[in-house]
Structure formats: C-alpha cells, structure tokens
Amino acid sequence: MSTPDSVALIVGLGNPGPRYAGNRHNIGFLVADELADRIGGKFKAHKAGAEVVEGRLAGARAVLVKPRSFMNLSGGPVAGAVKFYKAPPESLIVIHDELDLPFGTIRLKRGGGENGHNGLRSISKSLGTRDYVRVRFGIGRPPGRMDPADYVLKDFSGTERKELAYFIDVCADAVEALVTKGLEAAQNQFH
C-alpha cells in the first residue's frame, strides 16, 4: 500500500475528552494510541482540527490522526488532514467501532456503506467519496432493547476490558499489515 513518497493517513475515530475515554465508540482512539506508542510519538494539536503523530510505522511513512471534534463531525478534521498531507483518499485508513461484528472481531474493507455510523457518514460526505479503507473493530450489539446510540457511549464491560488490550494489539497489527502489505494480504492474515 505504501510507496517511498506516499504517506498512510491513519485515523482513529472517537469523541474527545475524559468523559468518553473508555467508551466503545472510542476504540479508534485507543488503537491510534497503541500505534503512536509503536511509532514512539505523542499526539500534538494540528491546524486541521485534530491531534496528529508523524513517523514510521513498520518502516512506512505514517500520520496518525485523532479528530478533536465529536464523532459525528469527524469529516472536517479528516478532510483537513487529507488536504494538509496531500494524501489521496485511497491512502486513508479509518479505525472505528462496528456494532454488526462480535466483540474483538477485526474486519478490513475498502469502501461500502456507513451502516448508520455517523463518523463514517461525516468523513464520506466531507471527502466526497466512500473509497477509503475501514478497519472495523467489533463491539457487538447492545443487550435487550438498549438504544445503539446509548450502547456505543457506554464503557466496555468488565469482561470485555479483560481482553481489550489484546484486541487493540491485534487491531494495531492489522493496521501495520495494511500499511506494509496492502488490503488483500492484510485481509488474508486477519479475517
């Protein structure tokens, strides 16, 4: 996926602030934090309306992005980062929570619909395309009749937290594979 001059723009989706830090909806931020540790960098404020870390991920040039806006307004900061780094949308990798996958399941795909995910909808609208790679981190369906909007804003359960660090690590490995090997090889490895 990466050529010597290209940059992988890796966006972790979430909501800013300590109130949301442990929410299911913030899994993108949690994986981005793991990737920043691997790069050896700290997130810094950027004029695009996001926090960024620049460096090399598994030897490839990468920029990690965490929008400072709320999830459903992620498109503006992501489009700003795409423009600033002159990264074509096809080099964009977006990490997000996915209700339609069991907890801890990782799936990679290019394009497609947003499945009601307001962060993805905002990004697609701001970029004018859905043709970017998504790293879907399964959070499972809400129990009983709980509203999905409430469920994604709840912290991971105690049982989930016991396995969360492992699955974040696996998800970060999948992002590294995307950057170094491309989508098809990463899908073969992680699906």
Automatic annotation (TrEMBL):
Which PROSITE patterns would you find in this protein's record? PEPT_TRNA_HYDROL_1, PEPT_TRNA_HYDROL_2
For this entry, the protein name equals Peptidyl-tRNA hydrolase
User: Which reaction does this chain catalyze?
Assistant: an N-acyl-L-alpha-aminoacyl-tRNA + H2O = an N-acyl-L-amino acid + a tRNA + H(+)
Site feature location: Stabilizes the basic form of H active site to accept a proton: D97
Provide the binding site for tRNA.
Y20, F70, N72, N118
Cellular localization per UniProt? Cytoplasm
Question: Which key words tag this protein in UniProt?
Answer: Cytoplasm, Hydrolase, RNA-binding, tRNA-binding
Family according to the record: Belongs to the PTH family.
Q: A Gene Ontology MF term for this entry?
A: tRNA binding
Per the record, the major location class is cytoplasm
Q: Which GO terms describe its cellular component?
A: cytoplasm
Gene Ontology BP terms: protein quality control for misfolded or incompletely synthesized proteins; rescue of stalled ribosome
Q: Where is this site: Discriminates between blocked and unblocked aminoacyl-tRNA?
A: N15
Q: Describe its assembly.
A: Monomer.
Q: Which residues cross the membrane?
A: none
Tell me which SUPFAM superfamilies the record gives: Peptidyl-tRNA hydrolase-like
Q: Where is the active site?
A: H25
Query: InterPro entries per the record?
Result: Pept_tRNA_hydro, Pept_tRNA_hydro_CS, Pept_tRNA_hydro_sf
Q: What is its EC number?
A: 3.1.1.29
Functional note: Catalyzes the release of premature peptidyl moieties from peptidyl-tRNA molecules trapped in stalled 50S ribosomal subunits, and thus maintains levels of free tRNAs and 50S ribosomes. Hydrolyzes ribosome-free peptidyl-tRNAs (with 1 or more amino acids incorporated), which drop off the ribosome during protein synthesis, or as a result of ribosome stalling.
UniProt keyword NAD present: no
Annotated source species: Saccharopolyspora spinosa
Gene name, please? Answer: pth
The enzyme's first-digit EC class, named in words, is: hydrolase
On the tree of life, the source organism's domain of life is Bacteria
